[in-house]
Design a protein that fits this description.
By secondary structure, the chain is α+β, with helices and mostly antiparallel strands. The protein has 2 domains: 9-163, 2,3-Dihydroxybiphenyl 1,2-Dioxygenase, domain 1 (Roll), CATH 3.10.180.10; 167-387, 2,3-Dihydroxybiphenyl 1,2-Dioxygenase, domain 1 (Roll), CATH 3.10.180. It has 12 helices and 17 strands. The chain has a 9-stranded mixed beta sheet with strand order 6-7-8-5-1-4-3-2-9.
Length: 388
C-alpha cells in the first residue's frame, strides 16, 4: 500500500451540514434528538464566509449546521446550488496537521487549501482541506487541543453541558452512496491509508412481487485501525441497477454523497423511547422481521439477548450479531426530506446503534434497512401519483 506513514487521526471531529433552513435543523436536533448548542458564528465569521453557523453536540458527536446568508455568495451557497441540504464537509481531527499535509501531498491528495492557522480561545488551531471522491463533500484535517469551537469565528454559548445527552456517545461511522465504489475504496486505501474492515452484497428483488426491481447493493467499510474511524460505502448492484435505492439517493442528492451518520448510544431502547415521545419518526420495519427474528438469532448463535423481543418489536429496533454474546441494535430515522416534508431537505438521515460486542454492521439489518427505504420511496411515489 502506498504511504506507510500514519496520518495520526484521532477521531471524526465534526460533520458540517450545509442547509437552507438553519433554524429548522437546529430546532430538530435540540428539541427532538436532545443535542445541545455549544457555539454560534460571530459577525466576523458571517462576513468572511457569507454564512451563519450553529454547532450542536451530544456526547462526542458534533454537527456544524451552516446556512448561506446572501444568495450567490460564498462556498455554502455554491454547494447548495447543486445539491439539496446535506453533508458538505467531514472534519478529521489529527495530532499534527503539518505532518498529515505532507503525507497526503506525497500520496497524491488533491489539496484545496494550504495549511491555515488561527488562535481560538487561546489555543492554536491548524487545518487544511482536500477534495474527495464523495462528490462535493470535502475532507478537512484539523489539529486542535480544544474541542469547541472547531472553527475560527465561532463563539461558545454553553460550556457547561451534558456530555452524554440522550445517551449519545459519539459518531460510530459515516455511510456514503456512489454509482461505483472503486474510486472511493482505492482513494481511502492509497490516499488516507485506510484498510478494508467489512463488506456485504445482496439484492432485495423479493421486496415487491409484482415488479422487476429491488434494492441491490454492494457495501465496503473502510477504517483507520489506529483511531477506529470508519466509513461505509455503498454502490448499486445489478440486476435492476437503476431501480436500486442507492441509485435513487444519487439522483435525489444529485451525485454521490453522505447518506447517513450513525450515532453510537449507550441504551438504544431508552433513547428510542425518549425520541419517539419527542415526535421523532423512524423508518418502519415490517412485522415479518420480528416473526422470524428468534430463529435468525438462534442461527447466528445468539440464543438469548438482554432486551425483550416484544419491546424491540414495539419500538421497531433491529437486531443482528456475529456470534455468542456479540450483537448490535440499530434503528434509522427517516430521511430529512420526509421528516421536514420538504424535498429540499435532502435524503440525509441518522442511524442510532448500540454495540454489545459486535463490531460489524449487521448484514441482516442491511437488507431490512434497504427494504424499509424502498417502501418509503414507493409510498412517496404513490402519494405523488394520487395527487396528480
Amino acid at each position: 500500500m502506498v504511504g506507510k506513514l500514519s496520518l495520526r487521526i484521532r477521531s471524526i471531529a465534526s460533520v458540517h451540514v450545509f442547509v437552507r433552513d438553519l433554524e429548522r435543523s437546529r430546532a430538530f436536533y435540540i428539541d427532538n434528538l436532545g443535542f445541545t448548542e455549544t457555539a454560534v458564528s460571530t459577525p466576523a465569521f458571517e462576513a468572511e464566509h457569507c454564512a451563519r453557523a450553529s454547532v450542536l453536540e451530544a456526547g462526542d458527536a458534533r454537527f456544524v449546521f451552516i446556512k448561506p446568508i446572501l444568495p450567490g455568495n460564498g462556498e455554502i451557497d455554491r454547494w447548495l446550488q447543486h445539491h439539496p441540504e446535506g453533508v458538505g464537509r467531514i472534519v478529521l481531527q489529527v495530532e499534527d496537521a503539518g505532518s498529515a499535509l505532507r503525507i497526503l501531498k506525497e500520496r497524491g491528495a488533491t489539496l484545496m487549501t494550504g495549511l491555515e492557522s488561527a488562535e481560538v480561545d487561546g489555543v492554536q488551531v491548524r487545518w487544511f482541506d482536500i477534495a474527495s471522491p464523495l462528490g462535493d463533500t470535502l475532507f478537512r484535517f484539523l489539529e486542535s487541543s480544544y474541542a469547541v469551537p472547531q472553527l475560527p469565528g465561532l463563539v461558545r454559548t454553553n460550556p457547561e453541558r451534558d456530555w452524554k445527552s440522550n445517551g449519545v456517545r459519539g459518531i460510530d461511522h459515516v455511510t456514503s452512496n456512489f454509482l461505483t465504489l472503486l474510486p472511493v475504496t482505492r482513494w481511502m486505501e492509497e490516499v488516507l491509508g485506510f484498510e478494508r474492515f467489512w463488506e456485504v452484497a445482496f439484492h432485495t428483488d423479493d421486496v415487491v412481487h409484482n415488479r422487476s426491481g429491488g434494492s441491490g447493493l454492494r457495501s465496503v467499510v473502510m477504517w483507520d485501525p489506529e483511531s477506529g474511524v470508519k466509513f461505509a460505502n455503498n454502490e448499486p448492484a445489478a440486476p435492476h441497477f437503476m431501480s436500486s435505492q442507492i441509485y435513487q439517493f444519487c439522483t435525489d442528492h444529485r451525485g454521490p454523497g453522505v447518506q447517513h451518520v450513525a450515532l453510537l448510544v449507550d441504551d438504544l431502547v431508552a433513547t428510542v423511547r425518549e425520541m419517539r415521545e419527542r415526535g421523532v419518526l423512524f423508518m418502519p420495519t415490517p412485522s415479518s422481521y420480528y416473526h422470524t427474528l428468534p430463529a435468525r438469532l438462534e442461527a447466528l448463535g445468539l440464543g438469548r439477548i438482554d432486551q425483550d423481543l416484544a419491546l424491540l418489536h414495539s419500538l421497531e429496533i433491529l437486531v443482528d450479531g456475529d456470534g455468542p454474546d456479540r450483537y448490535l441494535l440499530q434503528i434509522f430515522l427517516r430521511e430529512a426530506s420526509n421528516l421536514f416534508r420538504d424535498p429540499g431537505a435532502g435524503p440525509l438521515f441518522i442511524e442510532l446503534i448500540q454495540r454489545r460486542g459486535d463490531r460489524g454492521f449487521g448484514a441482516g439489518n442491511f437488507r431490512a434497512l434497504f427494504e424499509s427505504v424502498e417502501r418509503q420511496q414507493m409510498a412517496a411515489l404513490s402519494s405523488i401519483h394520487s395527487e396528480e
